[in-house]
């Protein structure tokens, strides 16, 4: 590692390279194509940024492209890459979907050596002949298991068809999918597999809790968790509709939150992340757009408001906490049926799922029953006070001194005199008139 980068590492507080950084450094610097597999939060970004930058020369056009699955991850990778690139006079430009295209084109006119972006925007600019790729010597596909799936797989392949055939490829991921075993078949170049997942212990201790709560009470429980000391959480939802509904409930109950979803503008998403990182809000509600690669320093907790449908999704979500040796907490919401399904989903993993309970403004693994210290007589007094019928004499609580209540006698109903109604009166007057007429 060149001295400038080594000094930068030390200023960041790193005493030594992580397993993935150490394992891929020489192959990448030598120009080999690699597949790097390492746990979440193990330093994969710096693992490929440092050796790739050491191969580049200032003023020689775009020589490296880094592809990320989301705007947030692309911007994060841009910041990390730029912090090292400026040390060796290299320029880095970010081009992502949802951002201002004209501004990005102006940045490209400054002839950067590194471009970081999302696949759709990169391909669009290549096809519009705005992004020149004839000098590209390295392409990094970050979160490869995600990018090489569905529609983005074809987009990535098309991008690679527009760069020189001898280009160096780097694939990085925390989880493995079948496509990663067929990289040479699809991309036509030998790829060295480097897997450090079994030897990497950079992740801190993370507790995985099961909090039983019904769907209608999830928002209320989320609000209660904000009263836990030093609680701050990235909260995952499966659907934007559920996210927005929960946001409305929390806002109505004066719980400050920020949201992150694909249908927001980039400026809104960036502000939400900034507010969350700076502690202005305790909850960041997000879809899986934030599940991959996003690095939030010392994030205490992740909450799965909606449980993920696959073990891979679970791995990436919970990987946002417990990064680089920091402790973390995962809280999974669901009813009894949901939590049983989650256990079955993760039965082949190493996650230890344990029940957790919210009591007295804290999370605990043991349920504490309400205090039973008051006796029955005190209970009677408490109930009587609520009804407004308690006596101040303590002897009134003793059963022997209680006087039996005498039921008050009801007055006898008054009997009406016979013939003393309007009908009998009229009959009598009629009889009198008849006698007078006679």
From TrEMBL:
Record keywords, A-Z: ATP-binding, Helicase, Hydrolase, Nucleotide-binding
Q: Which residues form the Helicase ATP-binding domain?
A: 25-194
A molecular function annotated in GO for this UniProt entry is: nucleic acid binding
CDD domains in the record: DEADc (cd00268), SF2_C_DEAD (cd18787)
List all Basic residues biased stretches. 415-432
Cross-referenced Pfam families, in alphabetical order? DEAD, Helicase_C
Q: Which domain of life is it from?
A: Bacteria
Q: Which PANTHER family match?
A: ATP-DEPENDENT RNA HELICASE DBPA, ATP-DEPENDENT RNA HELICASE RHLE-RELATED
Protein name as annotated: DEAD/DEAH box helicase
Instruction: Give the organism's phylogenetic lineage.
Output: Bacteria, Bacillati, Bacillota, Bacilli, Lactobacillales
Q: Which gene encodes it?
A: deaD_2
């Amino acid at each position: 590692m060149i001295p400038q980068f080594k000094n930068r590492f030390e200023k960041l507080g790193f005493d030594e390279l992580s397993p993935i950084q150490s394992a891929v450094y020489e192959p990448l610097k030598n120009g080999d194509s690699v597949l790097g597999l390492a746990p979440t939060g193990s330093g994969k970004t710096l693992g490929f940024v440092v050796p790739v930058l050491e191969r580049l020369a200032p003023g020689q056009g775009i020589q490296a492209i880094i592809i990320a699955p989301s705007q947030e991850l692309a911007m994060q990778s841009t910041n990390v890459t730029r912090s090292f690139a400026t040390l060796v006079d290299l320029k880095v430009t970010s081009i992502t979907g949802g951002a201002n295209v004209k501004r990005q084109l102006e940045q490209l006119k400054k002839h950067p050596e590194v471009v970081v972006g999302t696949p759709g925007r990169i391909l669009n600019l290549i096809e519009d002949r705005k992004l020149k790729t004839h000098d590209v010597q390295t392409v990094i596909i970050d979160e490869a298991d995600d990018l090489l799936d569905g529609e983005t797989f074809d987009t990535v392949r098309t991008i690679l068809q527009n760069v020189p055939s001898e280009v160096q490829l780097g694939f990085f991921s925390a989880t493995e999918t079948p496509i990663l075993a067929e990289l040479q078949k699809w991309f036509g170049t030998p790829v060295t597999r480097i897997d450090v997942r079994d030897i990497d212990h950079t992740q801190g201790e993370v507790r995985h809790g099961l909090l039983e709560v019904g769907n209608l009470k999830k928002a209320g429980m989320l609000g209660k968790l904000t009263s836990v000391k030093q609680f701050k959480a990235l909260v995952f939802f499966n659907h934007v509709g559920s996210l927005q509904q929960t946001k409305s409930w929390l806002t109505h109950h004066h719980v400050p939150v920020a949201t992150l979803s694909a249908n927001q503008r980039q400026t809104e998403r960036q502000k939400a992340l900034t507010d969350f990182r700076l502690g202005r809000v305790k909850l960041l509600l997000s879809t899986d757009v934030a599940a991959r690669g996003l690095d939030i320093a010392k994030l205490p907790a992740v909450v799965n408001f909606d449980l993920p449908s696959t073990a891979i999704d679970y791995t990436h979500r919970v990987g946002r906490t417990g990064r680089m040796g920091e402790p973390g907490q995962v809280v999974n919401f669901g009813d009894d049926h949901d939590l049983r399904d989650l256990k079955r989903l993760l039965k082949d993993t190493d996650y230890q799922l344990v029940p957790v309970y919210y009591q007295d403004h804290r999370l605990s693994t043991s349920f504490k029953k309400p205090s039973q210290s008051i006796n029955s007589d005190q209970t009677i007094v408490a109930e009587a006070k609520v009804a407004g019928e308690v006596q101040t004499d303590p002897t009134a609580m003793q059963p022997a001194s209680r006087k039996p209540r005498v039921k008050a006698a009801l007055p006898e109903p008054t009997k009406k005199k016979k013939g003393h109604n309007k009908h009998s009166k009229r009959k009598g007057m009629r009889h009198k008139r008849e006698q007078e007429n006679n």
